[in-house]
Structures are given as structure tokens and as C-alpha cells.
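Bump. Still looking for Conserved protein C-alpha cells.
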Amino acid sequence: MIDELRHSLKGKKVVNNCIGVAYTSVMLSDGSLGISHTITEGENSLCGEVFGNDAVSLVESLKNSPIERSVSVAILNSVGNIEGYENGDPIDVLEGNKLCVFGYSPGTVTNRFVSVTIYDFWNPPQRSFDNVTVKPFSSFTSETCDSTVIFGSALVAGNIEKILASISTDHLILSGISSVYAPITLKKYGFDYIGKVIAVDKIKALRVVCEGGLAKHLSRFTKKIYVKL
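Sorry for the wait, here they are.
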């Protein structure tokens, strides 16, 4: 992803950065805004040096822990010229027998699939309700699904390679607030949809993150979009 987006990041600097309780936000010198999940594991080796630093240098350096990837994924999330997108969630245009979902407490509710299996990165006890089964991600070994949604938080947590190596699916979607628009790279790995959450009011979305806002607060200043690759 970094190689694909390097040109878009070239010459840009971080002019604002907040690591909030739920999300991390980065604003670049061209006014673009990126948001990702905050995962408070490890330490930020460049703490105190992010502001004013070169965006390319930061994404190449901040990759050794979830807290560092919270920043680097937010930077990657900020770029990408998305043309021809549709409003909404890509899961709403797919249907089938089995849907698999990977993320932090992903609240995926759909009647377009017979069953939904959720692998939760928080590793809660297994439970079932309606057509949904929630399993701890620690129990994941392999799955065969009609469609699979991997939330961008997998990029922050460092789980995406394990998932891609162990999943068989007809449709593969990268989605959510931490999703990154890198269509060439993602298509190479088998993704056929990218869903993103983009800010419709960048300043207010930035302030929500900096002031400790949650998903319900951020949703007022963002919207869901998707593209088919």
C-alpha cells in the first residue's frame, strides 16, 4: 500500500494529529484528513515528532506496533483520488449463504445472507443470536464464505495477512473507518470492493477525534462510500 500511495503522499507534511480514545486522526498540509482506529498497544517511537514531519517518512517508520500503525494507517487513509464511488455500504449490494466479518466488535446486521460469522478482534466469548455467530479472533484458523468483510482495523492490529492467508471467498471487501484506498494493491490480494468512511466536514471530524468522540459522534460528520474494483 505504501508503494502505491507514495506518490500521493510525496511533499505533504502532517499539520495536525490526534490520538483519541477511539480514533486517530491526521491532517496533511494539503488539507486532506485521514482517520483510523486507535489501538493503544506498544509505544509511538516518534511521539513528539509527528507534527510537521514528512508523511512518507512517517508511514515508512511507524509500523512496529498497533499504536504506531494507528498513525500510519490514518496517513494512508487520507489519500486516494476516489472517482465513481457509490454512496452506502458495499455489503448492501451482496447476498449469499455465508458472510464472514473481521473487526473490533463489528455491528454487522444483514438479512441478505443466511448466516453471518463474526471474528471479533476483542476476543469475546463465543455467542450466537438470530443468524449471527460471534467468535473470538484467537479461534480463527480458516473459513470458506460467500463474501468476506475485513474492516480496516485489521491493518492497524496487524491481522490482515493471517486472514488473507486462511480465507476462501467469492467476494472480498475492505471497509470501515480505517480502510485505505489502494485499489491496485488490494486487487492484487483479491479484494473486489473497497468501502470507506469519508469526512463531509473535515474540521469537525478532526475535533470529534481529538475530543474523545466515539462512532456515534463521528457519524454526524462522515458518510459511507464504496467502489467496485
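The chain has two domains: 2-83+200-220, 86-196.

Edit: fixed formatting.
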